Amino acid sequence: MIPAVDFSTPNRYATLPPPIGKRFAARATPAPQGEQVRAHDDRELLLRTIEPGDVAALQRCFTRLSPEEIRRRFLHAMSELPTPMAQRLCQIDPVRETAYTLIDESIQPAEIRGVGRIYVDEATDTAEFSVLVEHDWIRVGLGALLMQRLVDDCRRRGLYELWGYVLLENRPMLELCRELGFSRRMLPDEPGVALIALKL
Ligand SMILES: CC(C)(COP(=O)(O)OP(=O)(O)OC[C@H]1O[C@@H](n2cnc3c(N)ncnc32)[C@H](O)[C@@H]1OP(=O)(O)O)[C@@H](O)C(=O)NCCC(=O)NCCS
Asked: What pLDDT, in 10s, does the model give residues 49-85?
């Protein structure tokens, strides 16, 4: 069953699939904390779950987003990522949430370049996703990598469906989801927003 629209879930304030095809699978190497992944342009990032110590990096990442990226990710305008919200996003409940970050360790302090998150709805055995990739890092496979990892995580959890709201103007995300096999449904009460879903 597809849950009713609820824009208040914590996931709305968060944000990457295994690779489309096999492009990342062949290139990921396990590391002690997370794994090193290589984007299509050969830049390397650390993929790991989010940690409480990521608050400042998440807030810095937010300041690098354009108003349009913020609106596409959170579905409304936001001028800042308040510390309590950033803390909430970095302190996940592993029973109900998974949040992967892509960490750029080539600079100090290390920076977050992408976040992919799910929030599980135990009542419906489904999970809502969100994903974000910083603009200097788009179109090199990271959005697909994060989304695929979220799909894998949902399958490990035995969930029935992964779903999310995407603005109809958000062609990159709609195209990414289409490539990953998600279906699209219009919402009569929410013009401009599509419900994207993948049966697992
Ligand atoms: C949407 C978003 C996550 C895509 O991330 P990305 O890292 O650029 O995606 P990828 O490089 O993995 O692209 C995967 C596929 O998506 C599609 N795609 C991505 N960007 C696209 C664009 N600008 N135009 C058309 N298709 C696009 C393509 O099919 C692409 O495959 P290809 O590169 O082999 O053609 C990123 O643009 C973003 O963070 N946007 C702002 C936040 C947002 O919209 N989040 C989604 C709401 S939850």
From this structure: 999 999 999 999 999 999 999 999 999 999 999 999 9
CA of 172 to the centre of ligand 1 (A): 4
pTM reported for the whole predicted model: 0.87
**Alpha-carbon distances of 57 from 51, 78, 90, rounded to whole Å:** 11, 17, 10
Measured by CA distance, the residue closest to atom 28 of ligand 1 is 176
E strand or H helix that includes residue 141 = none
Q: Would the CB of 142 count as within 6 Å of ligand 1?
A: yes
Alpha carbon of 123 to ligand 1 centroid (Å):
30
- Distance (angstroms) between ligand 1 centre and the Cα of 37 equals 17
Work out the burial of residue 78: count CB atoms within 10 Å of its CB; fewer than 13 is exposed, 13-18 middle, 19 or more buried: middle
